[in-house]
Amino acid sequence: MRNAHFSKDGDGLDPANLIVCPSCDAVFTVHVPEKGERSVCTRCHTVLIAPRRRAGMHIITVSLAVVILIFAAAVFPFMSIDAAGAHNQVSILDAALAFQGGPLFVVSLLTAAMILFIPMMRMMLVIYVLAPLVFDRPPARNAKTAFQVSERLRPWSMAEIFVLGCAVSLIKISDIADVALGPAFWMFAVLVVLVVVQDTFMCRWSVWNALEQPRTS
Fold it and tell me: Can you give the pTM of this predicted structure?
């Protein structure tokens, strides 16, 4: 795969033909690469444009799979623990609703939002934005706002942080209790991989360009 670098320029040009690196704020003129190639920042090598064939359909498929996994992971057992003759299994929603009042209840709700509701909302917004574009239809109503919201929610989607934290915790308690991982844990593991795959296929410049220059039919 070749890298198609931008020529750094920014004076006296139409802003519609410029792109700003999200990492180092360098300004470049847009030169759209061929399918399978990518344009990168010459200063920090951040990928700026990376069009792929049928990427939109792949992203929609992955997003649907993530939504289904989140629904299932919310209700299936996340883990079961056997200690001193006692057995207990818990789902993520059970853990979030275990505290009925006080600051811990707020913390548990925020945790559930970051690992369940925000990732689900992001995926549904992505599907809402991309589905009309993939099928050569005009953008959905308020598609720009929806895509902007999905991008702003991205730092708050922390499913992968949750899985990593659980793995560390399980290692620490494995000496004092028998821990069995439930179906929801493995769903979350697959979910994290799919989120990475979706991010790999996503070319945000291409999405914004399609929204700025919509089809009229």
Answer: 0.78
